[in-house]
Amino acid sequence: MSMTAAVGHAHADPHHIGVVIEHPGPASKRIVTAYGFWVFLLSDIVMFSCFFAAYAVLSGQTAGGPSGAEIFEQRNVAIETVCLLLSSFTCGMASIAADVRNRFWFYFGMAVTCVLGVIFLVIEFREFADLVARGYGPSRSAFLTSFFSLVGCHGLHVSAGVLWLLTMMAQVFAKGFRADVLRRMMCFALFWHALDIIWVGVFSVVYLLGGAP
Amino acid sequence: MLGKLDWSAIPFDQPIPLVAGAVVLVAILAVLIWVVVKGHLPYLWDEWITSVDHKRIGVMYILLASVMLLRGGSDAIMMRIQQAVAYQSQGYLPPEHYNQIFSAHGTIMIFFVAMPFVIGLMNLVVPLQLGVRDVAFPTLNSVGFWLTATGALLVNISLVVGEFARTGWLAFPPLSGLSYSPGVGVDYYAWSLQISGVGTLVAGINLVTTVLKLRTRGMNYLRMPMFCWTTLASNLLIVSAFPILTATLAMLLLDRYLGFHFFTNEAGGNVMMFMNLIWAWGHPEVYILVLPAFGIFSEVVSTFSGKALFGYRSMVLATMAICVVSFMVWLHHFFTMGAGPDVNAIFGIASMIIAIPTGVKIYNWLFTMYGGRIRFATPMLWSVGFMVTFIIGGLTGVLVAVPPADFMLHNSMFLVAHFHNVIIGGVLFGAFAGFEYWFPKAFGFRLDERWGKAAFWFTFTGFYVTFMPLYIAGMLGMTRRLQHYDVAAWRPWMIVAAIGMAVLSIGVICQIMQLVVSIRNREALRDRTGDPWDGRSLEWATSSPPPVFNFAFHPDVRGEDAYWDMKTRAQQQSFEHDVPEYQDIEMPRNSPTGFICAFFASIMGFALIWHIWWMVILGGLGAFATFVVFAWRDHDEYVIPAEEVARIDRINLEERRSLVSMAGAV
Question: Could you tell me which residue ranges the Heme-copper oxidase subunit III family profile domain spans (chain A) (predicted)?
Fold first, then answer.
């Protein structure tokens, strides 16, 4: 749908005197799909906000267990953050490659994104496994409950993202850069970038604020 | 192998659920056998189960809501009888069964009656009112419906396999935690709401995008029918509130399944966090339900008064004001928590403020009627009945918004009377008004007016006889959810309420009779023009029932009340005879994705409830595979050729021409 709007005289509309911009009609599929996915992402962010709120309420409730400052490894978190932020860049490269229909750079960008996502997940998994092994699992205290849930919820999203990423690569391999595949690719990119934004929140609220002694 | 599931899950010692379950099972089997034997299965599969047509999906939503209304209504009858007889005695329902009944009643009525009813009406009507051919995401729409049906299925399975929650409809911890509710009841509750909640979220995203991005030419925001505005507001609330419910129930489930400490009394968990979170969803939820009802009343009052809606812009403003303020009042559900006078005062004032836009709406409807040529058809009766009833409910609401008064009335029967007053008087009356009003659009024939009016008067009277006594009982100190009681002063009011329930039930029977009689007399009640009520918005511009593509051409809208405007112009300038050039129309193909997805979701939900882990994995893989298969298909649209569009459209145009020429002659 072009962005031209018909300009007409609204003689039938008593509230308008003179000229109003007429609504041009239904939007194109590309716009509708992206818009709907944006609305979904906003709802997903609302869901995360509940876990953030729970963390804010419960972060001091250590019940005799460790506090954030005692268990957070800032070095690992820094590596995780770099991986995720870089993967957002490579995901952007893959999107551009898809737009110009360049298969090589698309696969390359997606593959790097995937590797970076998996590295992030492995580091996170090791952090969790290490904590559980030391007896600091989520049932140790309300603080650990909220920590594992918030960070784990983000991790689950990244895992789903990796699954989606692989499906996207398979789709391009099987179907080429068809219009519907490109629309899905656009949604995937939005999803991946949104996870980055969430991670910036997690990094700041959980690891930076919670890691301070 | 089967987790916690064994034969002890079937309540062989309790005759009531067993008999009820058997009756339902026999009914379902009978319908299934009839469908298969008569050879209707291919028709059902092709035209309904796999349909992605918003009109069909809307009808299925409403059917689901109607069936569940009978289930929730049966619970209500049982409760009213119990309280009428359980004076200084145990009554006929054992406590743990009674607790399940009031929990199931609330859960079912909100999530599986009110929600699907309004979402069904929005699905059916909004694309037609916007002058477009479908919603933004037709296949997802079908997924949403079937996931809602999955939730309803799980709630009903709990009747005979295991138990339902005994915790009330919001499952407050610590009662709903593992230590006090070790059974599967809360798990049934939580998983059915999680699954149907995904369906609701999908419906919300779909309808928000539809209203904002799919409107016909010239359908500017301030020309949209009021129902589209309230749909927008309601679905914005769904999108921003339902994720809170999902997160909260996820936390409760983590507490129950993995020993987390969100809401436990041990290890620093915080019970009041649950109240805050659940009501941050719960209060917007009541506006999610009632805003579409306000939209329906706006359409009905304007149509049956023969006037444009009074104060259209103030109505839009009031709707959006309610949409925003509804997120700022949640704490009034627990003034007694002890947040302190300043917090309580702020939320008390916010709760009173939200009555102002609602009052604006009431005056707008009254002024719309003032000076109009009012026709008291059944939808209009429901609307006028609503205005009277809702004002009472609203006033008692303002009363409990005052924190000191709320301290006295908290958790009393007064509160029960208040929220039934607004939900029955607002949402249910609205749903019935919409049902009567748009039925001819969906099926092509009107409903019988005599039975409709009888249904209205019995329901209206029955409502007052049932719920006004509950206000009094609440004033006399009766708390809610009592399985038995020893106070003599409450007894007469409970008996009156039970009698009221009988009157209400007659209303329901009248409604069923209305459907039966109307189907039998459908030829006499046939609506040939597509415009049986002399309507004002675009849904009446197409035939009844509309063709699958709704409109042969996207209508051109030039002002508010688009169809009224078209009719007026057609009369003034005789009928424009330019024959339009028909074009091929592309429509989305039917897809079983929704049904198959819900099938796997049912398996997964059931397995999660009973801790059958291999089955959980099976269900999850199945659902993912369904989506991949859906994503892999090559042809998602089919073409209706221009000749076919022309043929269908000409039939409708002929009928309309005769109508307009007749009206012109008068």
Answer: 35-211
Q: Strand pairing partners for B637?
A: B588
The domain segmentation of chain A, as residue ranges, is 28-211
The letter for the amino acid at A35 is Y
A28-211 is classed CATH 2.40.50.140: no
**Phi, psi (5° rounding) for residue B69?**
-60, -40
The region that residue A28 occupies, defined by phi over 0 for left and psi between -120 and 50 for alpha, beta otherwise, is: beta
Residue ranges and CATH numbers for the domains of chain B are 290-521 (1.20.210.10), 528-545+554-585+647-666 (no CATH)
Q: Name which of A4, A30, A40 to mutate to probe chain B: the one with the most chain B Cβ atoms within 10 A of its Cβ.
A: A40
Which one of A32, A138, A142 has the shortest CB-CB distance to B258?
A: A138
Q: Is A159 on the interface with B (CB under 8 A)?
A: no
Q: Of chain A residues 120-149, which have a CB less than 8 A from chain B?
A: 138-143, 145-146, 148-149
Name residue A121's amino acid. L
Q: What is the CA radius of gyration of chain B?
A: 25
Q: What is the mean pLDDT of chain A?
A: 87
Tokens 């329902």 identify what position?
A: B93
Identify whether the C-beta of residue B243 lies closer than 8 Å to the C-beta of residue B202.
no
* pLDDT exceeds cutoff 50 at B666: no
In the structure encoding, which two tokens stand for residue B571, read together? 């009369």
For B538, phi then psi, to 5°, come to -65, -20
Quick check: ipTM above 0.85? yes
Model confidence over A75-128: pLDDT tens digits?
889 999 999 999 999 999 999 999 999 999 999 999 999 999 999 999 999 999
Q: What is the pTM of this model?
A: 0.92
